[in-house]
Amino acid sequence: MPRVARAIPPDARVTHWRAADGWAVRRFDRDGAGRGAILFQAGRADMFEKYLECFDHWHAAGWSVTAFDWRGQGGSGRLGADPHVGHCASFAPWIDDLADFWRDWRAERAGPAVLMGHSMGGYLALRAMVEGRVAPDAAVLVAPMLGLRSPVGARIGGLAARVIAAMGNPARAAWKGERPGAPDRRALLTGDSDRYDDEAWWFAHDPSLKLGPPSWAWLAQAFAGTAALRADPRLARVATPVLTLVADRDALVDPHAAIATTARLPDARTIRFPDAAHEILRERDAVRDRALAAIDTFLAERAPAA
């Protein structure tokens, strides 16, 4: 069967949701066969098209699947003057968007409601649960950004980001081109060249989706926000069952921070992938299929059909 990765399925809808302040947030919806509903949120600089193949897998199992591009990236506009820089002054508007969207979306759907988040999306999903802004029936965090990789360590890296952001325009790019000191971008993300090329295919067809490096303000917020979440005592009060998938070879986020942080949740399960890069759900079939099977098993156990 061909991969469903480079076309919006004909039974899906791409529309816009208006946030409380009027911001137009691009969304994807594909109705299922009554199994329940999944809201999947991607990572920094991503757009929902990167996960169409996974959406098709869950849809085939009966799930309705929804996703939206975070404001400032994908098809949801930009937060800085340079459209190629991933800028934000604060992560708080993203939490507000997620909470408001979840409220409206959940009210329209029957059956179990599941929140999934990859990378930055995983951080925002867990933070929203810790803050009591969303209460899914189950949650899946995929390579969640609960600590950032830094050659000088998270504490010094965060301090440096705050100082540099304050020294000039905080919306300027933290680096040019690929991440400094890192291997080629494909190696950072996945060992599957075809899935990696899906992203470039979408960029060629809609260049407005492409986003480049983060701003210094984003970096400062990411270091500070992940540190605060790791130390938050409310982690121990999250009632939602959580499955965390961790890539041991992750060179973008810290897998050990993810393991230690989610271990403090009352109802948590962690599965490690020693042969995976950051984008576990876009990895080689051997990795991706194991990840999808783990998610399917978790949802069957913790978010059974009504």
Short description:
The protein has 306 residues and is of the alpha/beta class. Helices cover 36% and strands 16% of the residues. Helix 2 crosses helix 3.
Q: Under CATH, the topology is which?
A: Rossmann fold
Quickly give the CATH architecture: 3-Layer(aba) Sandwich
CATH class: Alpha Beta
The total strand number stands at 8
* Proportion of residues in extended strands: 15-25%
Overall mean pLDDT stands at 96
Kindly name the structural category. alpha/beta
Q: What's the CATH H-level superfamily name?
A: Alpha/Beta hydrolase fold, catalytic domain
Give the SSE string. EEEHEHEHEHHHHEHEH
Mind explaining what this structure looks like?
- With 306 residues, the chain is α/β, with parallel strands linked by helices.
- The protein has a single domain, classed as Rossmann fold (3-Layer(aba) Sandwich).
- It has nine helices and eight strands.
- It has helices at residues 52-60, 92-107, 120-130, 154-167, 185-189, 193-205, 216-230, 255-262, 285-302; strands spanning 12-18, 24-30, 36-41, 63-68, 113-118, 138-142, 242-247, 268-273.
- An eight-stranded mixed beta sheet has the order 1-2-4-3-5-6-7-8, with helices on both faces.
- Helix 1 (52-60) links the parallel strand 3 and strand 4.
- Helix 2 (92-107) crosses helix 3.
- The relative contact order is 0.15.
- The model has no long low-confidence stretch (mean pLDDT 96).
- Residues 35-285 form the Serine aminopeptidase S33 domain.
- This is Lysophospholipase.
- InterPro entries: AB_hydrolase_fold, Hydrolase_4, MAG_DAG_Lipase.
